[in-house]
Amino acid sequence: MNHPVEMPYVTASLNQVTQTQNDVKPPRRLIQLTKACTKKYLNPPPNTLETPICKSCPVEAHDPLECVKDIQRRCPRLPAVSGLPFKIGQSPLIKNAPTTCAPCPQPAPENLLNKQLCHRAFKSAQQLQHQNDANLKFAGQEQIMAHVCRKNRDINIRMFHKSFIAYADSCCKHIVAIVKFYPFATMDSSLMARFQNLSHHLIAQSKFQNPNYSNGPAYAGHLFSLGWRKAYESKTTVGITRIAEKVSRDRKGWEDLQTHLPEVNRFIGERFEALSKPLFDKVKDHFQPLEAPGLSPDFITNPDAFTCHLSFTLNNFANQCHSNRDSSPYTFFTWLPINKSTGQLVEGPLDRFGGEFVFPKHGFGIDFSGFQGVVECAWKATHFAHLTLPFTTPISSSHT
Question: Strands 158-160 and 364-366: what pairing?
Answer without folding.
Answer: parallel
